[in-house]
Amino acid sequence: MTHHDTTSLVRWFSDPSPRPRARRQLFCLPYAGAGASAFQGWAAAAGPELEVLPVVLPGRESRYAEPFDLDIAELASAIAARADRPYTIYGHSMGGRVGFEVVRELRRRGERQPLRLCVGGSRPPDLLEPLAELSWVGDEELLGRLAELGGLPAEILAEPELCELILPVLRADFTWLDTYEYEPGPPIEVPIVAFAGAEDNSVTPDDMRGWARHTTAGFDLSVEPGGHFFLHERRERILREALA
């Protein structure tokens, strides 16, 4: 077990309703530009059997003062230290890729691995991520493309100050995606459950089927109504999977 001082561990997780007696934990990894607030309301919707732990990545929300630096090894250490029961990881879009690398890192270290890795609207790691090109387009185009996907509420686009706050986070995350290189290795021994939005033009259900190559423990694809950000409407379905 990796030993962490509790302060450094606490900063990694938003813990709106601690449930030390819940039988399962769910770690949630956000899409590019988002923070733990992408999973607002999930803990309340989950019920007593599941402790929902949205991950707070550096440079946003309560970690606003920290540099944007997504370190998979550090994140894996934090999850390993916080996972004290059987757990599942759900990652959406960029979060799916991050979750996959976390599972590989946990395996390398011989730590407890999740019961399953759930990925939503996320291309398999061995495929090129077209959204990565957003790391080098101009601000207007970046915000416009995300608005088209449904990832930016109109009220944010209408507020220049909010746009200025969110742009550095978006740039940092798309830069992570742009510099990400999949290192081929053996498939993980954790079942993968993939969720695809039926109307998602950026990551199609066919793209999502490619995750099957990355596990030896079973693969399941669930096509949900909605576009790229279907997770908000389909959270009950995803929460059920975390308790399955």
TrEMBL record:
First and last residue of the signal peptide: none
InterPro entries assigned to the protein according to its UniProt record, in alphabetical order: AB_hydrolase_fold, TEII, Thioesterase
UniProt similarity note: Belongs to the thioesterase family.
Positions of the Thioesterase domain: 24-241
Pfam families, per the entry: Thioesterase
Domain of life: Bacteria
GO biological process, one term: lipid biosynthetic process
Species of origin: Nonomuraea jiangxiensis
Protein name: Surfactin synthase thioesterase subunit
